[in-house]
Specification:
It is a single chain. The chain is mostly helical and 67 residues long. It has a domain of 38 residues. The chain is elongated, with a radius of gyration of 22 Å.
């Protein structure tokens, strides 16, 4: 844990079970970030400009006529 979060042994001993388990559960994500493979999976946005314009018009947002 000290490798990933910078905690000392004494600080780890002072944690609650919940804190310890939540930090322990996050280690795989931290390891991915440290190794350069990124964090959580990114989803590609496939929303088109026309779709955005339609959504804006439904909400009453004025949009430019030329885009």
């Amino acid at each position: 844990m000290s490798r990933y979060y910078g905690f000392t042994i004494n600080e780890i001993g002072d944690m609650s079970i919940y804190q310890f388990s939540s930090y322990l559960g996050e280690i795989p994500e931290v390891e991915k970030m440290l190794s350069g493979s990124g964090g959580k999976e990114k989803q590609k946005d496939t929303t088109t400009t026309e779709d955005l314009m339609k959504m804006a018009n439904k909400k009453g947002i004025k949009t430019p006529t030329k885009y």
